[in-house]
Amino acid sequence: MYGKELILDLHNCNSSTFSRKSIEKFLKQLCKLISMKREDIYFWDYEGFPEEYNKAPDHLKGTSCVQFIKTSTIVIHTLDILKKVFINIFSCKEFNIEDTTNFVVSWFGGEVIQMHLIERL
Description:
This protein is 26% helix and 40% strand. It is of the alpha+beta class.
């Protein structure tokens, strides 16, 4: 196996955890938990553009983030109004799925609606 990707969809989350500051703190703690070395991080959201945020449909109002890690990426998409979080953790380094899932749920609240594990060959 080359690596694996954990895909989590959470609904009914605590949307106060969707800020850049909170997401970056989450990523630091997650990478520590799964022993991954953080590299560059990139955010995309409506920060500084309130008019665009107000005009956007609900399914686009949120923050997206890519956290590069030494072994691949962690990608997060949040939806403020819908209180949903979508997370993909892809790494060629081993990590514990159960511990990772439990940490994600404890951080964002809500419930896991879908969980998929893809083994990359």
